[in-house]
Amino acid sequence: MLKINNLHAVVGDREILRGINLEVNAGEVHAIMGPNGSGKSTLASVLAGSDRYEVTEGTVTYNGKNLLDMSIEERACEGLFLGFQYPVEIPGVSMANFLRHAVDEQRKCRGEEPLSAAEFLKMMREKAKIVEIENKLTNRAVNEGFSGGEKKRNEIFQMAMLEPKLAILDETDSGLDIDALRIVATGVTKLKRPDNATIVITHYQRLLDYIVPDFVHVLYDGRIIKTAGKELAMELEEKGYDWLIKEYR
């Protein structure tokens, strides 16, 4: 599904990604961990198409297509979803209207007819149950006045509605209490299918108690320095990153 080969990216005159290699197949969950400043969020932004970063070397292939040649809109149309670390508020735009347009655009990309109002409302009710989101939140403006946990829950609700092929979740667990973490992570797990994939970016092993990864990658200094199974996250929880960074150096 996704193949990254020797990806380098800069912001201004500073190189942040220094040769990322990663392959993600359908049905897989990949966790990317690493200390602050290692390049985790930069990788997510580059894959999503942020124009803040310039790719200077390497290739990214997504479902057989050159991802780096696609606009942000084209990437979304192809089923790529980014869950933000800090979800933004959109005053004056209700969640229902926002999602109605987003879902219709996704269906248009697939050559499908828009949902009727009744079909859309039924879909919203079904997906809202996955992340235990209340109806009153879906009638409010996007994230306006939401708590941190509600904003993160809303991100997963949007993911449920859009049914992406590849979801990239950038520190979805940051700022969540244990109950909100459980709800968000359980929602992500319920959305896993054999034909989609998820990349979870996190600092902490606790999220991976709920979202069990097939692979754990440690990113440091713009490179993936170690890849292993879920047991690596437990080892990092116990030992921290220093031992691995010393080995790398």
Provide a descriptive summary of the structure in words.
The relative contact order is 0.18. This protein has a six-stranded mixed β-sheet with strand order 6-9-10-3-11-12, sandwiched between helices. The chain has a four-stranded antiparallel β-sheet with strand order 2-1-4-5, with helices on one face. A two-stranded antiparallel sheet has the order 7-8. Helix content is 37%, strand content 28%. The protein is built from nine helices and twelve strands. A hairpin with a 2-residue loop joins strand 11 and strand 12 (223-228). The longest helix has 15 residues, at 95-109. With 249 residues, it is of the alpha/beta class.
Helix content: 25-40%
Q: Please, what is the average pLDDT?
A: 87
Query: What is the number of helices?
Result: 9
Shape: globular
SSE pattern, N- to C-terminal: EEEHEEHEEHHHEHEHEEEHH
Strands side by side in the biggest sheet: 6-9-10-3-11-12
CA-atom Rg in angstroms: 18 Å
Separation, N- and C-terminal Cα atoms = 32 Å
Structural class: alpha/beta
Number of strands: 12
Contiguous runs where pLDDT drops below 50 for at least 5 residues: none
Q: Tell me the strand percentage band.
A: 25-35%
Q: How is the main sheet built?
A: 6 strands, mixed
Main attributes of the structure:
249 residues, alpha/beta, six-stranded mixed β-sheet, four-stranded antiparallel β-sheet, 37% helix, globular
